[in-house]
Each structure stands twice: as structure tokens, then as C-alpha cells.
Amino acid sequence: MVRPVNSLTVAALVALLPGLVAAQSWTDQPVDPSEHQEEVAVDYEDEGRYYTADDVPTYNIAEDGTVDWLTFSGFRRYHAECHVCHGPDGEGSTYAPKIKNSAVLMDYYDFYDTVVNGRANGNSVMPHFGDNPNVMCYLDDIYVYLKARGMDAVARGRPAKKAAKSEMIQEAENACMG
Ligand code: HEC
């Protein structure tokens, strides 16, 4: 007897197809730092946090290599929460993008939205972190750190010298973590 094709099997196959057919939707592409210098440039500082002219958080690396607090904190938070999938230092893996490049190429608000809400493309799944304070309270830190990595402004590994954490950053952290 010929077994009729189970409609569930068909549904499962159809659901899988987009993941198999569609190319990866990753924003990650090679970055030429010289093309993005203006976009990431510091316009102003607010008690230890640095921003571009568009009010987007950015990194600040002193001439002697001292990194701003967010870049240092982002290094630690990234390696606690993201590196299992995205690889050490934002370098990517076979199944998750090189998000050091994404942080330069993606719009800040799209980057934020992807982490808060997650994203799925077939079997390629980015979890959502919107309810995880260990990510949400440090998302600017992670973003700024990855942007510095994508721009080659900081080397791989733990930054050796860091600026002190400002009182405002500490207060914001306390308020966020509750
Ligand atoms: C369980 C594995 C996993 C973890 C943990 C994870 N991600 Fe992802 N992430 C992925 C995958 C897989 C994708 C690609 C999704 C797709 O194909 O659309 C992705 C995509 C992204 C993107 C979009 C990148 C692009 O180029 O389009 C961003 C931004 C991102 N992740 C940030 C983060 C951050 C920040 C963290 C840590 C807080 C994190 N991810 C933790 C698996 C993960």
C-alpha cells in the first residue's frame, strides 16, 4: 500500500525551505574603517559616555590606548552573553554573524531591536534578550565595544587600560538592575 504523504511532513518541509533557499540575512560584511570614521566620531561626552553627532553611543580610545568604560564593560558583557554563538571578540562563527562588522554597518536602532526581539531566518535563530537585565542594562556597552572592534580601534582580547566608571554610569546601572 502506498502511504499518502503526511500533510504535516509537507508543512515541515515547506517551513524549512526558506532557511535552505534564502541566502544568509546577515548584515556582517567586510568593513573598511577609513570609510566609517566620520559616522563613529565622538561629537560629545556625557559623564563618561560618548556620542556621535546623531546621539548614537560610540567608543573613545585615548592615544595611549585607554578605552572608555563602556568599551571595557562591553568586552566583559559580550563574552558573558554573546560569545558562545558569535565567537570571541565579535569574530563570528559558522552559525552566527561576525557582529563586530554588524555593529558598524547596522543602524544602531536595528541592532538594538534585533537583540531585544531576536530574529529567525529558517534554522538560523538569534534569541531575544529583551527580558534579560544582564544584556539590556549593558546593551550600549556591548554595542560600543563591538563597534570599536569592527573599526579595529581595539585589538582582540581584554583591553589593558580603561577609564574609570563614572558616577552617572554606576547610578544608571543600579537603577536598571534594580
Ligand atoms: C544562541 C546563539 C546566539 C546568542 C547567544 C546570541 N546570538 Fe546574535 N545571532 C545569532 C544568530 C544565529 C544570528 C543570525 C540570525 C539570522 O540569520 O537572521 C544572530 C544575529 C545577530 C545580530 C544581527 C547581525 C547581522 O549582521 O544581521 C545581532 C546584532 C546580534 N545577533 C547580536 C547579539 C548580541 C548582542 C548577543 C549577546 C547579547 C547575541 N547576539 C547573542 C545567534 C546568537
Provide a descriptive summary of the structure in words:
- Keywords: Signal.
- Residues 1-23 form the signal peptide.
- This is C-type cytochrome, methanol metabolism-related.
- The structure is a single chain.
- The chain has 178 residues and is mainly alpha-helical.
- It has a single domain, classed as Cytochrome Bc1 Complex, Chain D, domain 2, CATH 1.10.760.
- Helix content is 45%, strand content 8%.
- The chain contains 9 helices and 5 strands; from the N terminus they run H-H-E-E-E-H-H-H-H-E-E-H-H-H.
- The strands form 2 sheets. Strands 1-2-3 form a 3-stranded antiparallel beta sheet. Strands 4-5 form a two-stranded antiparallel ribbon.
- Strand 2 (49-51) and strand 3 form a beta hairpin.
- Helix 3 crosses helix 8 (139-150) and helix 5 (99-105) crosses helix 8 (139-150).
- The mean pLDDT is 92.
- Heme C binds at residues 24-28, 81-82, 84-86, 95-97, 99, 102, 111, 114-115, 119, 121, 124-127, 129, 135, 142.
- Residues 24-28, 81-82, 84-86, 95-97, 99, 102, 111, 114-115, 119, 121, 124-127, 129, 135, 142 line the site of heme C (HEC).
